Amino acid sequence: MNKGFISRKVLLVGVVLLIAAAAGVVIYIRGNSNKIAKPQHPEYLNFEGSYVFSVPKNYTVDEQSVPGAQLIFSGQITAKTLEDVYNAGGISSYAVTDLTDKSSDAFKKYVNDRFVPDLKKNLSVSDVQVKFGKANGAENVRIIAKKDGRPLRYIYIKAGQHPAAVIAKQESTSGLSDIEKSMIDVEKSDLKNEVESIKQAVKSTAELIKAQKAREVYALASPDFIAENTEAELANAMKAATAYTNGSITISGVKYAPNEISAAMRFTKLDKNDQQPSFGVLNFKKIDGQWKLQTLSLPTPKQQ
Predict the structure, then answer these.
(1) Exposure string over 169-188, b if 16+ CB within 10 A, otherwise e
(2) Which SS3 state, helix, strand or coil, does residue 185 take?
């Protein structure tokens, strides 16, 4: 990680991602986040899929390297492909959006007639075991694909109102059982009364950043943030990130713990000659029933 200058309120650092290194550096606008007690087992809320799962202790959720999916892994992984992630003990999760009929018969038909045949074709395997079950009030299926007697892929698919899948190389992958057991529709989870306020806080703040409305963002900040940053400093940081925020901003979900949330932002510039994505982070703290911006990171062009 390459350091730039360090001041009381702003830190410039290089960013290294799991699969690809993002261009540029990141401006961190910091509040006093050291006061927040980090739980050992936070939850991940998928925005598109509207499902929740527990994040095993010492695991990281990366929703930026593969758009539309979450990569869940422990420690540091150097990977160029999903296969590399699985070989290193990583796990992936994604919303199953093409299963629109929520009935039991439709779920089994989808698995047997569509998913398994595609799996055999894509992995060039014939040895596929399928076992249907039920957990957390929803049907599920466990699928094991082997090649030459060796495990090649383990897949768990949860049905219910919001179908979702979890994938690893083998069923014994560390942390997989915790994710599988905890995966549940958001309406049945402990976030059922929080989900709308969480989405509103995250998405509205990203929209304000894109629109360069520093005053409105500052008004949503926590006392810690305001104590350590002026509105002018926030405006300057947002202006420096204009080349990125002018393009698209994608937020897949949030990592949640009681009274705090963290959301990764994926920025894709409008410049067709420079489509390398860059990243930022929004952290919020719940204060008096309202989500307040606690810390913020934004990309900015490399300093020459």
Answers:
(1) beeebebbebbbebbbbbeb
(2) strand
* Per-residue model confidence (pLDDT) at position 36: 30
pLDDT at position 19 over 80: no
Q: Cite the DSSP H helix spans in the chain.
A: 82-87, 104-109, 116-123, 176-182, 195-210, 214-219, 223-228, 231-240, 242-245
Residue that the structure tokens 């892994």 belong to: 73
Please, are residues 261 and 10 in contact by the beta-carbon 8 Å criterion?
A: no
**Tokens, residue 301:** 């062009």
Domains of the chain from N-terminus onward: 3-39+192-300 (3.10.450.100), 53-184 (3.40.1000)
Tokens 């860059």: give the residue. Answer: 278
Inter-residue contact 251 to 264 (CB < 8 Å): yes
Chain-centre distance of CA 12, in angstroms?
Answer: 23
Report how far residue 148's alpha carbon sits from residue 96's, in angstroms, rounded to the nearest whole number. 29
| Token pair belonging to 233 | 């400093």
Residue 275's SS3 state is coil
Range of lowest pLDDT (2-6, 86-90, 212-216, 295-299)? 2-6
Beta-bridge partner residues of 250: 266
pLDDT digits (tens, 9 = 90+) for 20-37: 333 334 444 555 544 433
58 dihedral zone (left: phi>0; alpha: psi -120 to 50; beta): left
pLDDT for residue 54 is more than 70 = yes
Cα–Cα distance between 246 and 244 in angstroms, integer?
A: 5
